[in-house]
Amino acid sequence: MENLIALLIAAPLLGAVVLLLGGRRLDAVGHWVGTLLSTASFVVGLVLFAGLLGKDAEHRTWTQHLWSWIPVGDFQADVTLRLDQLSMTFVLLITGVGSLIHLYSIGYMEHDERRRRFFGYLNLFLAAMLLLVLADNYLLLYVGWEGVGLASYLLIGFWQHKPSAATAAKKAFLVNRVGDVGLSIAIMLMFTTFGTFAFGPVLEHAGDASEGRLTAIGLMLLLAACGKSAQVPLQSWLGDAMEGPTPVSALIHAATMVTAGVYLIVRSAAIFNGAPDAQLVVTVVGGVTLLFGAIVGCAKDDIKKALAGSTMSQIGYMVLAAGLGPIGYVFAIMHLVTHGFFKAGLFLGAGSVMHGMNDEVDMRKYGGLRKYMPITFVTFGLGYLAIIGFPGLSGFFSKDKIIEAAFAKGGAEGWILGGVALLGAAITAFYMTRVMLMTFFGEPRWKNQPTKSPEAPSAEPAAEHQGAHGEPHPHESPRTMTIPMIVLAVGSVAGGAFFDVGDRFLHWLEPVTGHSEGHSPLSALTVTGATMVCLVLGVGLAWAQYGRKPVPAHAPRGSVLTRAARRDLYQDDFNHVVLVRGGEHLTRSLVYVDHTLVDGVVNGSAAGFGGLSGRLRRVQNGFARSYAVSMFGGAALLVAATLLMRAV
Amino acid sequence: MNPVNYLYLAALLFTIGATGVLIRRNAIVVFMCVELMLNACNLAFVTFSRMHGNLDGQIIAFFTMVVAAAEVVVGLAIIVSLFRTRHSASVDDASLMKL
Amino acid sequence: MSTQLAAYSTSTGEAVQFWILGSVAVIGALCTVLMRRAVHSALCLAGTMIVLAVFYLANGAYFLGVVQIVVYTGAIMMLFLFVVMLVGVTAADSLKETIRGQRWLALLCGLGFGVLLLGGIAHASLTQFNGTGQANAGGNVEGLATLIFTKYVFAFELTGALLITAAIGAMVLTHRERTERAKTQRELAAERVREGKHVPPLPAPGVYARHNAVDIAGLLPDGTPAELSVSRTLRERGQIRDVSAQALGDLKALEQRAEERLERTENTPATFKRTEDAAQ
């Protein structure tokens, strides 16, 4: 049974190799090959899952040793895969949602002539992501970590003919590198501290190391998580990453890759448990990102960017929960899974809307679409209800647990974190309602105005539905696109309840992450009530602003906060001023130092020697007799020296 | 008389020859001074041979003569070809190796 | 001087010989350095070498003494003289120093080196010697031959190779490959006419019967020497004897004598009256 683990990775990897090296002759079947192999991986995952369920909770960790990778003295890096409850959860999420999105992409990318390459990249991403979650040591995890970074880069920049896409891909890649430095330093620290970086020994002996060491490792891991999961201060790339095709946004930048940071923190639970300071920083980062993403999401008129802000915010919830320690790990993962369902569903819905609207992304040019695309409306609506935490749907269970856990942290810390989480819930309700109302309700604002024409019609989906520069004709998407949306909507609705009833998810994951009940100052019912109040407040506010009165087709100037949020709370300006300018100044001063000091010393000594040689060369007058004199003088000196030595 | 006197004479001749090399400009005369130095050495070797009571010194002097003969042949050939091209036998005229 | 005597002691005769011939050798060496003409230097050097040959004989090196005279003085010095003649016998060097400080530096170095060398020999204080009697017992030439063909055979073979190399080297250095066909007389004449310079034959050297040597330039009508009349080699060596001043002096004296013979006085033209003036 263990031997099947490698198959999980092998299937999509094979797909990537075949599709990327296969050339144009695979253009006709490439998308089906990709989807089939992704589904195969999902099936293998299900088989393994069944196998795991058949074991006791204590024996649910399987490892498969493939080969010795770098055996150098004490430095042993093996390619070993590890499947336990945590990995299994991720495997099912990645392969399941991944397969659905493969299916969706068949329709979405139908008119893109580079569709085969797109599926190759998607398969490459799946393989890397599976390697990331299945690795048995941090070094192998790092390989997967870089692999998903590469796949993300390739997919964000898939429409590389658009300068904005190419720039966004580059930005994502560079910002991710900052986080990767953190991960590599963390691995080095682990090696110097524990002498190994396999999960087993490291996590087992984490308690033996000094707290300072653990804090350092924890903070470096957090830096890595911030880069991959778009947490403050490395959040700036996620909004721009929406330049990629929508299925990519759904799979990589909502459901799976961006949650790798949460996986890393939960996987390294033993390290964080020994470093309270690092945990505090994790919760602070989570809380700040939660509000940051939510505020940004409120102001964006671009439907994908609004959802991106939402993603950032929801991952903030997960990081916050992961920072809470054993009381939050399980809920972080649970929210991660439910979020994977409903956020993927929402993104696919957004993609479907764009598909029907000639790739228009500005919500101010939508309106009243519920009549034209009913399936999209229903699935998107269910996802919407799930994310705002409508009672009974999945978001309600997972998010509620996190808020409870935040309060259960205890002390002022708990009150602050709980308050932030509650506020976040209210803002979530507001911006999601805003998206919903602007897109599907109200008057159609797309009539009588031409939409932007795609820059390269052949590369964009649904190009033929556009009358030449005419108004769009909203329509429902093909079945390959609606089926995944329906499946994900079902997951969004039922997932939370399925996990939560009887604490199924808790018992499943507890052996890996550990769990402890906090002592909440508020009862669970109070927290739920408060959450409901926040929910109603948020929805009501959004209704008052966007439901009762028509939405202006052009964005009003808005308040200071709105304008700031539209510019992503000046994150890019901050980066520009602090990092770019700072770097430029540093470089300039270094160049100055180089020119004056270093070059000065070098040129000065060179000039000194040059002058000296200029004087010395006068001795070289070219007359052989002059040279002979010095030779003869030297011989005389030698005789003198010899005699002197003999005399002494 | 002590045969060391021969050594003194050799030293004197050698020094005169060396100074001549340094002072004279005519390449042929310079060359003759070199020969004088070689001869002074030969005298010293022969004297050493007598003082040590074996013939090795004389052998060395003999080899010196052979090498000197070879040297003279090549050296004079160089002087002749130099004179042919530069119409001068002065060693100072060949002073191009300077800046 | 007998072999036995040379072996164990030095006779008074040898001492006298040393002091006399040693002085000659030093004087010869100094003259070699100081003579202005290369040919004189060569002759002085030859003298010094003969003295050295005598000293070799006195030291029991009979073979070397003979070789010194035959090979060194006889062959090598003659080679020097040949080259001196090739380069120009009479060209006297200017002894004026052209490099600043060279002479003083050279003298200083020479003095210091000589003093150190002499001091070193004196310091060694060699008072005893073995003499070559034992070594020369079987004959000097036989002893040398034994050593050369046994102990020093490789060095000897190498010197053979060296001599051959030197001979070939000298040939290579002095040999000039003719890269084009030599011009015939007709071609040379045609070339001269084409250039338009010296179409007639070059002027002959020498003036009057007294000065018809090849190194004396012929005189032009105005009494100045015609350089073209002297061979190019002599011209390049600067070995033209200029007799123009003497010739002009001779000419003047001849004219004066002729005038005296003809009793011509250098009278001022007489003032005479013209007929028409007389008529007045």
TrEMBL record, chain A:
Location in or out of the cell: Endomembrane system; Membrane
Q: How does it sit in the membrane?
A: Multi-pass membrane protein
Biological process according to GO: ATP synthesis coupled electron transport; electron transport coupled proton transport
Q: Where is the NADH:quinone oxidoreductase/Mrp antiporter transmembrane domain?
A: 135-419
Domain of life the protein comes from: Bacteria
| UniProt entry keywords in alphabetical sequence | Membrane, Transmembrane, Transmembrane helix
Q: Which residues form the NADH-Ubiquinone oxidoreductase (complex I) chain 5 N-terminal domain?
A: 69-119
Entries under Pfam families matching the protein: Proton_antipo_M (PF00361), Proton_antipo_N (PF00662)
Provide a GO CC annotation, any one. membrane
Coiled coil location: none
Ranges annotated as biased composition (Basic and acidic residues): 462-477
MF-aspect GO terms: NADH dehydrogenase (ubiquinone) activity; NADH dehydrogenase activity
Supply the InterPro entries for this chain.
Answer: NADHpl_OxRdtase_5_subgr, ND/Mrp_TM, NU5C-like, Proton_antipo_N
- Does Nucleus count among this protein's keywords? no
What residues form the membrane-spanning segments? 6-22, 29-53, 86-106, 118-135, 181-202, 214-234, 246-266, 278-299, 372-394, 414-437, 483-502, 522-544, 627-645
Looking at the record, which segments are called Disordered?
Answer: 448-477
* KW Membrane (keyword) present: yes
What name is this protein filed under? Answer: NADH-quinone oxidoreductase subunit L
Q: Organism source for this protein?
A: Streptomyces griseoluteus
UniProtKB/TrEMBL annotation, chain B:
User: Could you identify this protein by its name?
Assistant: NADH-quinone oxidoreductase subunit K
State the function annotated in the UniProt record: NDH-1 shuttles electrons from NADH, via FMN and iron-sulfur (Fe-S) centers, to quinones in the respiratory chain. The immediate electron acceptor for the enzyme in this species is believed to be a menaquinone. Couples the redox reaction to proton translocation (for every two electrons transferred, four hydrogen ions are translocated across the cytoplasmic membrane), and thus conserves the redox energy in a proton gradient.
What protein family is recorded? Belongs to the complex I subunit 4L family.
Q: What keywords does the record list, in alphabetical order? A: Cell membrane, Membrane, NAD, Oxidoreductase, Quinone, Translocase, Transmembrane, Transmembrane helix, Transport
GO terms of molecular function? NADH dehydrogenase (quinone) (non-electrogenic) activity; quinone binding
Question: From which source organism is this entry?
Answer: Streptomyces bauhiniae
Q: Which domain of life is it from?
A: Bacteria
- EC number(s)? 7.1.1.-
**What Pfam families does this protein's entry cite?**
Oxidored_q2
Q: Where in the cell is it found?
A: Cell membrane; Membrane
Q: What are the annotated GO cellular component locations?
A: NADH dehydrogenase complex; plasma membrane
InterPro entries attached to this UniProt entry: NADH_UbQ_OxRdtase_chain4L/K (IPR001133), NUOK/Mnh_C1-like (IPR039428)
Entry keyword Membrane: yes
Q: How does it sit in the membrane?
A: Multi-pass membrane protein
The subunit structure is: NDH-1 is composed of 14 different subunits. Subunits NuoA, H, J, K, L, M, N constitute the membrane sector of the complex.
Question: Which catalysed reactions does the entry list for this protein?
Answer: a quinone + NADH + 5 H(+)(in) = a quinol + NAD(+) + 4 H(+)(out)
Q: Upper lineage ranks?
A: Bacteria, Bacillati, Actinomycetota, Actinomycetes, Kitasatosporales
The processes (GO biological process) annotated in the record are: ATP synthesis coupled electron transport
TrEMBL record, chain C:
Q: Which UniProt keywords apply?
A: Cell membrane, Membrane, NAD, Oxidoreductase, Quinone, Transmembrane, Transmembrane helix
Please list the reactions this protein catalyses. a quinone + NADH + 5 H(+)(in) = a quinol + NAD(+) + 4 H(+)(out)
Main localization category: membrane
**EC number assigned by the record:** 7.1.1.-
Gene Ontology MF terms: NADH dehydrogenase (ubiquinone) activity; oxidoreductase activity; quinone binding
Q: Which residues form a coiled coil?
A: none
Which family does the entry's similarity section mention? Belongs to the complex I subunit 6 family.
What does the UniProt function comment say about this protein?
NDH-1 shuttles electrons from NADH, via FMN and iron-sulfur (Fe-S) centers, to quinones in the respiratory chain. Couples the redox reaction to proton translocation (for every two electrons transferred, four hydrogen ions are translocated across the cytoplasmic membrane), and thus conserves the redox energy in a proton gradient.
Q: What is this protein called?
A: NADH-quinone oxidoreductase subunit J
